[in-house]
Design goal:
379 residues, alpha/beta, Rossmann fold, seven-stranded parallel β-sheet, six-stranded parallel β-sheet, 14 helices
């Protein structure tokens, strides 16, 4: 059997990480696939160069173009190219072409959350979200199989997309072993001061639903109460959300004394950011299965976290929770965490142990077992 993989809409971040890790941790022949073809743009192809030679990675210039050209290629070009395949795997969801059978994977909950999408108002991005919402629903409804990443995503999407005619399963992402670091001994907050503060880090794209301004205001409130804490923000900047973040910082930290926007970090730089931090805050209100949270857990950090699902599904009792849109609640949660050495030690140890259950080899095995099951049922 031949498996085709549509990587046309995987551009960076978790989507690429997932594809690389799954393919590095599997031998397709164990599941009956004699050949695996991956179609991708040049940037994505360069990130897939570490894959074993048994994978046929094909770079297509048309996939370096804008989303409209990629959509048309997926509709017409991919449907033709995939004819040599027995199954098509679309790990980015949104496939609307004519080839059958295919398996899709839902990885973006914003497409299914109308309340969060309303935050973008009448904008080009809001229109893009609406369009993707349509293509995701269409793709899932016609797929021979759909992979969900979390119980939360499975529940919400299966209530939203009807009917789902194909098979469904849940396969969580893993977390790379390089992130694992035993929790450090926790120091009492009295041992910190404004010159040597407790360093919080928030790794995430600066976007509306990540609620960065509320986190900044929460940290500012702690500083006013004399709590020696700083916040470093790491991630891509989306223009409108970044402007809102800057306005919040201008209000509460005009000299940028305790809030720092560091931009995106990769590889060893990102690893160092996790491993040198004292605590982690995650304030997203719309997620499917955030790899970032898994990375913070594996890094042995005490975590103050959004109470919005699926975060409690992932972190369970290993964090202190808050309403991500309420700066006062965020401030209380962070203060609760930093004020208690015992609480930080307990939370960090629980999070570290829980992260060990998220394995890329297991993700790869379960993904290819499902692909084999789907293609077998279509014969």
């Amino acid at each position: 059997m031949i498996l085709g993989i549509d990587a046309s809409n995987l551009r960076a971040g978790g989507g690429i990480t997932h594809l690389v890790e799954v393919l590095q941790n599997v031998d397709p022949s164990d599941y009956g696939f004699s050949k695996v073809i991956v179609w991708a743009g040049s940037d994505t192809t360069s990130m897939l160069k570490t894959l074993p030679p048994r994978f046929d990675v094909r770079a297509l210039k048309v996939l370096d173009a804008n989303v409209a050209f990629r959509f048309l290629w997926q509709q017409f070009g991919l449907s033709k190219l995939a004819r040599e395949c027995d199954l098509l795997f679309n790990p980015g969801c949104g496939y609307v072409g004519s080839f059958r059978p295919y398996v899709t994977m839902s990885r973006n909950m914003l497409m299914f959350d109308k309340d969060e999408r309303r935050r973008y108002g009448f904008s080009a991005y809001a229109f893009r979200c609406w369009l993707l919402s349509w293509t995701h629903r269409f793709s899932i409804s016609r797929a021979a199989g759909t992979i969900f990443l979390s119980d939360h995503a499975s529940s919400v999407i299966q209530k939203t997309v009807r009917p789902i005619r194909g098979k469904v399963t849940r396969v969580a992402h893993g977390v790379s072993r390089k992130y694992f670091k035993e929790p450090r001994p926790q120091r009492p907050i009295e041992s910190y001061d404004m010159g040597s503060p407790f360093r919080l880090v928030y790794v995430s794209t600066i976007d509306e639903y990540k609620n960065h301004p509320a986190v900044v205001e929460a940290v500012a409130a702690l500083r006013r109460r004399g709590v020696p804490v700083t916040l470093s923000i790491i991630g891509w900047k989306l223009a409108a959300a970044f402007r809102e973040l800057q306005r919040a910082m201008d209000r509460v930290d005009p000299k940028r004394e305790f809030t720092f926007v560091l931009g995106p970090k990769y590889g060893d730089d990102l690893l160092r950011a996790y491993h040198e931090a004292d605590g982690f805050v995650f304030a997203s209100s719309c997620e499917n299965l955030p790899n970032i949270l898994l990375e913070a857990m594996a890094s042995g950090l005490p975590i103050a976290c959004s109470q919005t699902q699926p975060m409690p599904e992932i972190l369970a009792d290993a964090g202190v929770y808050f309403d991500p849109k309420n700066s006062d609640g965020i401030s209380r949660a962070i203060q609760q965490l930093v004020s208690s050495t015992d609480l930080r030690s307990t939370m960090a140890e629980k999070a570290f142990r829980r992260a060990q259950s998220y394995s890329w080899p297991e993700c790869a095995e379960r993904t290819f077992s499902f692909l084999k099951e789907v293609v077998g049922s279509e014969v």
